[in-house]
Structure prediction request, 91 residues.
Amino acid sequence: MLNSGDTFTKHYTIHPGHTVRDIFPEAGEFADMPDVFTTGCLVALMEWSCIEQLSPHLDSGQISLGIAMNMTHDGPCTTGTELDIHCEVTA
Prediction:
């Protein structure tokens, strides 16, 4: 049973291919950007973490789908940076 206050932490190391320069190779504008973790990949990593937290509580065939996000991206992360994504059920 999933309860308010339940937490989950995902540990992740940023891999090559998840940087701003890599996200859309056809977009030349990204080639001049710093080689840092993309906000898009950060959003996907957060979604993945929530899926992992919820999946033991879902019936076969059920899925989790995010509907809103409120986040900040406070500093750059380069390839090899280790991240901890913390999830908490609030309601």
About this structure: The mean pLDDT is 90.
